[in-house]
């Protein structure tokens, strides 16, 4: 079975439990992601979302006033998104690998929470995305980072073993401790910048998160609210600065189409 079929099968399965499993993302990272999108995109713009999942961010961007085309490899994910959004968006069952199937150009694009880590050829993706965006359009993507400083700490403390996967550069996706055949690749900030550079200029990158533990460690449940707020405030000041911006669990990339 080829990689796209494997990925489709996994994400169709995951669609039924996605919102439950991503509840910890929604507690603090989802809001930061949406705030970033609404900083760079404007109401009225015609945007395309690549890997929309169940449509949580899509719904907020529609409320903000953008026109959305939602794409996803998984029909089940699109079904869940439609249940939230209804006829307020356009839905296209399309892998990111075939993003150049569109014959129009969009005002901007975004892809959140590691969708691009699962793309089979990320270099070809950037090349194809370039063709469907207007000149100077923004593309905003959050991508799982290969070099996350926290993995060294969590591995040493025996909390997680994600460090092994990141050092290897790829790993199979796990849900509740069980590995599935769907594969994720991990990229450094410098690697993504280099891959995208023929087609996109990197304007800014932001660690996502850098001081707060990643959502799979449930920091909102583990940390006292006062401590969480202090760390969140410090993180907001540091996450776009050198060298911190290169070592987050994920990275938000703000690209502008050449």
TrEMBL record:
<keyword id="KW-0489">Methyltransferase</keyword>
<keyword id="KW-0808">Transferase</keyword>
<dbReference type="GO" id="GO:0032259">
    <property type="term" value="P:methylation"/>
</dbReference>
<feature type="domain" description="Methyltransferase type 12">
    <location>
        <begin position="48"/>
        <end position="138"/>
    </location>
</feature>
<protein>
    <submittedName>
        <fullName>Methyltransferase domain-containing protein</fullName>
    </submittedName>
</protein>
<dbReference type="InterPro" id="IPR029063">
    <property type="entry name" value="SAM-dependent_MTases_sf"/>
</dbReference>
<dbReference type="InterPro" id="IPR013217">
    <property type="entry name" value="Methyltransf_12"/>
</dbReference>
<dbReference type="GO" id="GO:0008168">
    <property type="term" value="F:methyltransferase activity"/>
</dbReference>
<dbReference type="Pfam" id="PF08242">
    <property type="entry name" value="Methyltransf_12"/>
</dbReference>
């Amino acid at each position: 079975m080829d990689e796209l079929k494997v990925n489709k099968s996994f994400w169709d399965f995951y669609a039924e439990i996605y919102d439950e499993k991503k509840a910890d993302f929604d507690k603090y990272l989802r809001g930061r992601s949406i705030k970033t999108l609404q900083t760079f995109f404007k109401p009225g713009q015609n945007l395309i979302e690549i890997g929309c999942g169940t449509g949580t961010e899509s719904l907020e961007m529609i409320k903000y006033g953008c026109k959305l085309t939602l794409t996803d490899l998984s029909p089940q994910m699109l079904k869940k998104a439609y249940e939230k959004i209804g006829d307020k968006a356009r839905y296209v069952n399309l892998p990111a690998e075939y993003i150049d199937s569109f014959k129009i150009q969009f005002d901007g694009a975004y892809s959140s929470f590691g969708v691009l880590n699962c793309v089979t050829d990320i270099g070809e993706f950037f090349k194809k995305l370039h063709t469907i965006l207007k000149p100077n359009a923004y593309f905003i993507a959050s991508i799982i980072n290969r070099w996350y400083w926290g993995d060294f700490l969590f591995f040493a403390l025996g909390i997680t073993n994600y460090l092994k996967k990141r050092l290897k550069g790829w790993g199979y996706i796990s849900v509740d401790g069980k590995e599935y055949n769907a594969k994720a690749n991990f990229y450094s900030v410098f690697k993504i910048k280099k891959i995208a550079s023929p087609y996109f200029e990197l304007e800014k990158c932001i660690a996502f998160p850098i001081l707060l533990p990643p959502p799979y460690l449930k920091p909102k449940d583990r940390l006292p609210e006062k401590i969480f707020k202090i760390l969140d405030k410090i993180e907001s000041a540091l996450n776009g600065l050198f060298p911190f911006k290169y070592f987050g669990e994920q990275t938000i990339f703000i690209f502008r189409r050449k």
